[in-house]
Amino acid sequence: MASKMASCIFCKIVKGEIPSFKLVETDKTFAFLDINPLSRGHALIIPKFHGAKLTDIPDEHLSDILPIAKKLVAATGATEYNILQNNGRGAHQEVDHVHFHVIPKPNPAEGLGISWPQQKTNMDKLKALFEEIKSKV
């Protein structure tokens, strides 16, 4: 893990080795403006604990994330916005350190553009899936 942390751009930002536009910092969390924003106010919130995917991060290192996201949304004045967190290349994660995007959506041209490819479902299969997942939660 140490070698991954040493080369991780977000770990370097937290340590101050790479400059950032820091918005909020707590003992567990660091938030800063994205340098490749989708819209004005696009920010990233990262746990200081290094982990590639959400399941790699201990719960206590996630406790600040949503309260900080809420503060950042209020600070931008956004009334429409996305909170986004991707896990793995297939899910569009580009930096292997958990991060949450706060992306204001001021108009159709700026912010996150997504499609929502809903699938038809069989209620019996959905019930079986429900029971499978519920038994593991």
TrEMBL record:
Q: Which GO terms describe its biological process?
A: nucleotide metabolic process
Ranges for the HIT domain? 9-112
Q: Which residues form the active site?
A: 99 (tele-amp-histidine intermediate)
A Pfam entry, by short name: HIT
Is Cytoplasm among the key words of this record?
no
Q: Which Gene3D superfamilies match?
A: HIT-like
Q: Which InterPro entries match?
A: HINT, Histidine_triad_CS, Histidine_triad_HIT, HIT-like, HIT-like_sf
Keywords, sorted A to Z: Hydrolase, Magnesium, Nucleotide-binding
Q: Enumerate the catalysed reactions.
A: adenosine 5'-phosphoramidate + H2O = NH4(+) + AMP
Q: Which GO terms describe its molecular function?
A: hydrolase activity; nucleotide binding
Tell me the superkingdom of the source: Eukaryota
- Which CDD domains does the entry mention? HINT_subgroup
Motif (Histidine triad motif) positions are 97-101
Cofactors named for this entry: Mg(2+)
Please give the family membership noted in the entry: Belongs to the HINT family.
Descriptive protein name: Adenosine 5'-monophosphoramidase HNT1
Q: Which organism is it from?
A: Chaetomium globosum (Soil fungus)
**What is the organism lineage in this UniProt record?**
Eukaryota, Fungi, Dikarya, Ascomycota, Pezizomycotina
